[in-house]
Amino acid sequence: MGGGGENRKRAIDWLQKSARSYLEDGNGKKALTAVAAIKSLAPDHPLLAELRVKIYLLEAKSASQPVPAGIPAGASTGTAWPLASGYVVTNDHIVADSSDVILINGSGQELAAQVVLRDQASDIALLEVGDADKLPPAIPLANSPLRLGSRVFTLGFPRLDLMGSLPKLSEGVISGTNGLLEDPGSLQTTVPIQPGNSGGPLLNMNGEVVGVVKSMLGIRDERQGSIYLLPNASCALKIKCVRDLLNLLPRRDAALTILPRRSGDLETLAARIQSSVLIVVAR
């Protein structure tokens, strides 16, 4: 990459950090200025939608909203889930620039984790913990792509501050086999999500992961700067992104038991999978 490209990348990285810092300080106006600067340098940057949604939510919620017990103020939270190899999948934007990452399992046990590989463009990160035996069973990856209209669901941890720390389920269908601007690496769904669902597994009716929940979809009012969130519209990365990232790491034998690939009703699938989703906290 030439010097100009390197300088552009540094500028975008600095603006991302600035936007997050402004959000942590509760300054939505300055965060929006940083996002506008990122857009001028990289109109299709994968974090733009996420940052805009965070600004919208900052403006919409009360400043006195409590932080959940045990979650540090200013921490980034999301959802994660384990692979058979013992690696754990989440979104890169949750753990980016974080020096302290914790995974919390269904029994409330905290596991220190570290990032082993990131793909900022695809917004995927792979984590690992010191003792993989402490992770729950792995969720299997789907081998076949989904068709338009296929039924899907996710389990995750939206809005811990309001909805609590037990996993929440939401369902929908594949509404687009390509993502925004016909991105071939993503899916569009009608699965309703909230901040905190990011990084969670998008699952088919066999209990297999077909994608990684990425972001809500919204329309920004260019004059007012506000964001209107589209109801029942979300974006997920296709599972191929996870497979591609795994291929960059040394091959591992299976370290975890894998949940069965078996069709069932939503209640049965939720009972099987819910203990294998993890809260991720990064600061």
- What strand line-up does the widest sheet have? 1-2-5-4-3-12
What is the terminal-to-terminal distance? 31 Å
Number of domains: 3
**Shape label:** globular
Major pleated sheet? 6 strands, antiparallel, barrel
Write the CATH architecture name of the largest domain. Beta Barrel
Give me the count of strands: 12
The CATH superfamily of the largest domain is known as: Trypsin-like serine proteases
Average pLDDT works out at 84
Oligomeric grouping of the chains: single chain
CATH fold annotation of the largest domain: Thrombin, subunit H
The run of helices and strands is: HHHEEHEEEEHEEEEEHHE
User: Helix count, per DSSP?
Assistant: 7
Please state the CA-atom Rg, rounded to the nearest Å: 18 Å
Helix content: 25-40%
| CATH class annotation of the largest domain | Mainly Beta
Task: Please report which band the strand proportion falls in: under 5%, 5-15%, 15-25%, 25-35%, 35-45% or over 45%.
Answer: 25-35%
